[in-house]
Specification:
alpha+beta; 27% strand; 3-stranded mixed β-sheet; single chain; 4-stranded mixed β-sheet; 13 strands; 9 helices
Length: 314
C-alpha cells in the first residue's frame, strides 16, 4: 500500500490546510468526470480519497502515524484501495492461544494465510469464506463497492439555433428513443453527460456538433449577420429589414456613409443576453452606360476621397 503522505505529495509534518490544498488539487486532476474511461486516473482518485480520509481526521492520522496502515488496532478504516471501504476485522482462532484466544486479524492477511495453509482457494478450494465454514459471510466479509456504471460515448449534430436558444432533440440508443434537452448557448464540441440513459443503467456521454447557419455566425455569445447594401444605401442611408435569431425581423436604420465592414449593434439579440451585430457589405454595380460613368466621375470630383490613407503600406 502506498504511503498516504506520498499519495498526497505532502510532508509528514504537513498542516491540515496543506493536506486539504493537496487533496483538492489532486481530486480535480484525477476526478472521473475529467478522465472518462481512464482506469489509472480512477485508481489514483481512489488512493487520493483514501489518503485524505485518514490524514484529514486528527484521530485517524495519529493512529496512522503510530501504527501504519496494515497494523491491527490502528483505529481507522483505511487499507485496501476501495475508497476507504474496508470490512470489519475477522475474529479468527489460531488454536494455540489462550482459552477463548481470538485475535483481530486483517481480512486480507487472513485470506493469504488460508491460501498458504490449504493451498489454492482455501478449504475445498472454495476461498476464504468457505474455509471459515461460511462464517466470514456477513460478519467478516469485506464490503465491496458496486461496479461503476458503464459509460458510452456518442455524438450528434444539432441545428445552430437549437444550440443557441436551447431545445430538445431526439436520439436513438439501442433501439430506444431518448429526448435530450439542450441547454441554451451550448458550444460546438461540448459534451453532455446523461446519467442512466443507456439501457441497464449506464451513462451516455454525448458530444455536441453544431451545424453552421446559412447566414448567422457566432462570436462568443454574439451573433453576426452580413447585410448587403447598395452604393446609394451606403452613401445616403436607408432602412432595411434584418432577421434575428428568434425568427423575427427588425427594421434597422442604416446611417449615411456606412462602409463595408462597419457594424451596428442590436442589444440583447444574441445568445444568453449577448448582442447581434449588423455588418455592412457594400455591393458595387458595374457602370455599363456612358451616362452612369459621367455621373460617377462627377460625384468623384465633388467628393474627393482617398480610402487608402492609414493602411500599413502607405
Amino acid at each position: 500500500m502506498p504511503d498516504f503522505y506520498d499519495v498526497l505529495g505532502v510532508k509528514r509534518d504537513a498542516s491540515a490546510e496543506d493536506i486539504k490544498k493537496a487533496y483538492r488539487k489532486l481530486a480535480r486532476q484525477y476526478h472521473p468526470d475529467r478522465n472518462p474511461g481512464d482506469k489509472q486516473a480512477e485508481t489514483r482518485f481512489k488512493e487520493v480519497q483514501e489518503a485524505y480520509d485518514v490524514l484529514s481526521d486528527k484521530t485517524k492520522r495519529g493512529n496512522y502515524d503510530r501504527f501504519g496502515a496494515a497494523e491491527p488496532g490502528a483505529g481507522f478504516s483505511g487499507g485496501g484501495r476501495r475508497g476507504g471501504q474496508r470490512g470489519p476485522n475477522v475474529n479468527f482462532n489460531w488454536g494455540g492461544g489462550p482459552a477463548g484466544g481470538f485475535q483481530q486479524v486483517d481480512p486480507e492477511m487472513a485470506e493469504e494465510l488460508m491460501r498458504q495453509f490449504f493451498g489454492g482457494g482455501g478449504a475445498a478450494h472454495g476461498g476464504f469464506e468457505e474455509a471459515l465454514g461460511g462464517g466470514a459471510r456477513g460478519r467478516g466479509s469485506r464490503s465491496r463497492r458496486p461496479a461503476a456504471p458503464q459509460e458510452v460515448e456518442s455524438e450528434i449534430t444539432i441545428p445552430f439555433t437549437t444550440a443557441a436558444l436551447g431545445g430538445s432533440v431526439n436520439i436513438h440508443v439501442d433501439d430506444h428513443e431518448l429526448s435530450v434537452k439542450i441547454p441554451p448557448g451550448v458550444e460546438d464540441g461540448k459534451k453532455l453527460r446523461l446519467p442512466g440513459a443507456i439501457p441497464g443503467g449506464g451513462n451516455l456521454l454525448l458530444k455536441i456538433n453544431v451545424a453552421p447557419h446559412p447566414y448567422f455566425r457566432r462570436e462568443g455569445n454574439d451573433i453576426i449577420l452580413d447585410v448587403p447594401l447598395s452604393v446609394s444605401e451606403a452613401i445616403l442611408g436607408a432602412t432595411v429589414d434584418v432577421p434575428t435569431l428568434d425568427g423575427n425581423k427588425l427594421a434597422v436604420k442604416i446611417p449615411p456613409g456606412m462602409s463595408s465592414g462597419k457594424r451596428l449593434r442590436l442589444r440583447g439579440k444574441g445568445i444568453k443576453g449577448g448582442d447581434q451585430y449588423i455588418e455592412a457589405k457594400v455591393t458595387v454595380p458595374t457602370a455599363t452606360d456612358e451616362r452612369s460613368r459621367q455621373l460617377m466621375e462627377e460625384f468623384a470630383r465633388l467628393n474627393p476621397q482617398n480610402p487608402r490613407v492609414g493602411p500599413p503600406w502607405t
